[in-house]
Amino acid sequence: MVKLILKRHDPKSKLYFASEKKYLLGKLSKNLIFNIIHFGSTAVPGLGGKGMIDIFLIAKTKKAAMELIDQIRDRTDYDRPATGGSNERIFHRRTRGIGKKRVTFHLHVSWKSAKRWKNDVLFLDYLLKHPDAARRYEELKYVWAKKAGYVRRKYHDSKPRFISMVLRKAKSE
Fold first, then answer.
1. What is the DSSP track for 160-172?
2. Which residue, 74, 111, 120, 129, could crosslink 65 as a Cys pair with Cβ 3.0–4.6 Å?
3. φ and ψ at residue 32, rounded to 5 degrees
4. What is the spatial distance between Cα 172 and Cα 17, in angstroms, rounded to a whole number?
5. With helix as H, strand as E and coil as C, how does 101-157 read?
């Protein structure tokens, strides 16, 4: 079992994302891609978290997403872990060196008509517009981590209530 470690925000996260986006655009068929989005804690200035760069690769269609998944397997260094993902999100991961730092990227593949990624981006946008909510989220992350005994699955199970509350606020704006 890998123990959960929370880290302070790395101000270079946006640069890491830009580098990885360029890598993906150089390996995958651009005509299948609707958007590539940096999301998650590293996309919010000042917000700490696990320190992994979360990327949503949004395909134009579900069929295009399946083609991109084949391309990811055949053309990139991404691995598809045994766990992670859902019926609207196919998860991949890779770690590479950038300068002297090892950076882990989590690639979430979905498609334009899927709903899940839209909520994740709505959550991100709310945190970007409301720094007080981002600070509260970071505070809670440390509480949840400690309460979960620094076990990743238990930690993740603590987050939905807060996320749902933020999504309700975001949708009402």
1. HHHHHHHHHHHHH
2. 111
3. -95, -15
4. 30
5. EEEEEEEEEEECCCCHHHHHHHHHHHHHHCHHHHHHHHHHHHHHHHHCCCEHHHHHH
Side chain identity, residue 110: S
Q: Are 93 and 79 in contact (CB under 8 A)?
A: yes
Specify the pTM. Answer: 0.91
> Residue 46 and residue 137: Cα distance in Å, rounded?
11
Amino acid at 148: A
Q: Are 109 and 59 in contact (CB under 8 A)?
A: yes
DSSP-based three-state secondary structure for 94: strand
Q: What is the pLDDT of residues 45-65, one digit of tens each?
A: 999 999 999 999 999 999 999
Two tokens, residue 13: 């996260």
Give dist(CA 113, CA 105) in Å, integer.
Answer: 24
CATH architecture for segment(s) 13-172: 2-Layer Sandwich (3.30)
Give the burial string for 126-158 (b: 16+ CB within 10 Å, else e): bbeebeebbeebbeebeebbeebeeeeeebeee
